Amino acid sequence: MVTFVDRVTLHLSAGKGGNGCVSVRREKFKPLAGPDGGNGGHGGDVVLVADPQVTTLLSYHHSPHRSAGNGGFGMGDNRSGAAGEHLELPVPVGTVVKDETGEILVDMVTPGIRFVVAPGGQGGLGNAALANPKRKAPGFALLGTPGWQGDVQLELKTVADVALVGFPSAGKSSLIAAISAARPKIADYPFTTLHPNLGVVQAGDARFTVADVPGLIEGASDGKGLGLEFLRHVERCTALVHVLDCATLEPGRDPISDLDVILAELAAYPVPEGQVPLLERPQLIALNKLDVPEAKDLADLVRPELEARGYRVFEISTVSHDGLRQLTFALGELVEQHRIEAATAPAPERIVIRPQGAEKDFEIRVEGGTYGTYYRILGTKPLRWVQQTDFQNEEAVGFLADRLEKLGVEDELFRVGAQAGSTVVIGPGDGIIFDWHPSLSSAAELMTAPRGTDPRLDLNPRRTTSQRRDRYHERMDAKAEARAELESERLAARGDGWEDEDES
């Protein structure tokens, strides 16, 4: 069975940024000629592109997992890693992109529009880029950050000027095939059309697109039949053409009753906010299959009632092409009028883009649990900095502490009541947990220590040679003092004994 897919969920993974390199340039007579570690490459983005040549989301239904390329690692001699390859995903024009919660991210109604749905990770800086007059030879580099990972929903809403609506087997597919170059599947059984078909119609100087919407039945707006899945494709159409079957053999059906059912379903379907309700848009009536003798008699009978309701009625035959020219020219006039009104309409509300720094870079939340109160730091910069930190390198951890202090995290922790030794979590969920020590706020650039170490952390319990020598001398001096004290006590005791013997 052929299935039309107009709603899929994509599982996306952007590329990871490459790690920076720690390297020292070595030249003749200059064993330590300065840092030359290169930067890591940025991870590849996942980009959605509105492509007019793509008409369905079926390929993403079968392969929903898509990933972009990772960035390369930095290398010595100031060689940067290669950037990850971007992944471009073509989608039909009219695709609505939503996040996991259903919030609309972008409506891709313009051909060629590009939207970065999953940005790649940032490449880490090498130690050459981290060097400055105060930190001339960094013994660490920044790690690459992971790319965006998550799910997005794609929902296709056909972009067309005119929509053909009606009951199944009313002749909509035959009509679009007769007035355009579209070649949809045509058969005399219900639900032949399983997905909207688009056709381009030329009527004089007017050129417009027509969408053949799959057949609607009573209860379609409540999910009955196939109608609910395709009513969304009518949302973007300027005008509607009700294709009524005047040669139906089903009992209890006639053009008037079919029209009333379709109107009720269109009225029950809620359109997005800001759009014109379906029944308030221009509508025409096409009485189809007039090549059948009985259909002609029925059309003459129902036409006065339809015109009394205010509809323009056209009697057509997709077999003999009678009435098609008049119908297409009438639709061309409606479309051209709508385009003129849209061109003179006031410009949409401007989108305000907030510059970086206008909003707070981070926030601190005081949270409590079974094990007491802890402080959670949320923000783009702190989270990215933690992802870039190599926690096996003391100097890198000290560099992170300096960045957080310069951002104002230390002062904000004091303000919310944090004390030395308080538990701090950076990032949502489990995050990075550590004990906060305000003493780390001093500048590491002013300290002298071997590369890759930070004396403020004291994470290495091993003592230096001078420290061991001083400790040895302290022990020797203590032992010498103890021996001297014992010797003085012994001599004092011996002197008292001699005095007793002399007296006796």
UniProtKB/TrEMBL annotation:
Superkingdom of this protein's organism: Bacteria
Broad class of enzyme this protein falls into: hydrolase
Domain spans labelled OCT: 354-438
Binding locations of Mg(2+): 173, 193
The protein, known as: GTPase Obg
Compartments (UniProt record): Cytoplasm
Main location: cytoplasm
Sequence ranges assigned to domain Obg in this UniProt record: 2-159
Basic and acidic residues composition bias: residue spans: 453-497
Species, as recorded: Microbacterium dauci
Residues that bind GTP: 166-173, 191-195, 212-215, 288-291, 317-319
EC number: 3.6.5.-
Cofactor(s) named in the record: Mg(2+)
InterPro entries recorded: G_OBG, GTP-bd, GTP-bd_Obg/CgtA, GTP-bd_prot_GTP1/OBG_C_sf, GTP1-OBG_CS, GTP1_OBG_dom, GTP1_OBG_dom_sf, OBG_GTPase
UniProt keyword terms in alphabetical order: Cytoplasm, GTP-binding, Hydrolase, Magnesium, Metal-binding, Nucleotide-binding
